[in-house]
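Support reply, case 0932

Customer input (verbatim):
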Amino acid sequence: WDKYALGGDGNGEPLGLGYMFAADGVSEVDADAEAPLASYAKLIEAVGRVRAQHHNPTAVVLDVPSWATLAMLTATDDQPLVPPKAYSDLGEYVSDFVSLGAGSTSNAVVGDFSRLLVGVRTNVQVEVNTTGPEFKQGKVAIRARMRWGSFVDDPSAFAVVRNLHAVSLAPDES
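Our regenerated output:
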């Protein structure tokens, strides 16, 4: 569901949270793409912006590089940095579908995810095919289908942190 609920760009698909802007009702925090992600400050600012709209944020969704960057933060004694309570109280989820920011940056979404409604229109239909030459080779074809949709019933319950500059997790070229 996160491909569309978080990363849908609104062009022939639903508009996901990561592509919503202030005009759509979400709060926005600019993490300054020039500065590497070195603290939880911008994410805590997003928590504050959601709380200022009288909502209780329940989770943060980050991409893998941002999550890894936060996990690698260290205190001045080179010990892992303990996240502030305002961050550690949130559920932390990782998704490949949080929208990309400008250039090589990414975005994160902080909010009250009870305000993101996901509905299923039909039950999951599972079809199994055990015929044909594949069956003789010990293979079975399985297909599952369902119809669902997502809707943000109150965009003010969310904040999008834009332009997070995280570590590169690209494969080494050596």
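We compared this against your earlier run and they match. Two observations from our side: The chain has a mean pLDDT of 87. The first strand starts at residue 27 and ends at 30. Please reopen the case if you see a mismatch on your end.
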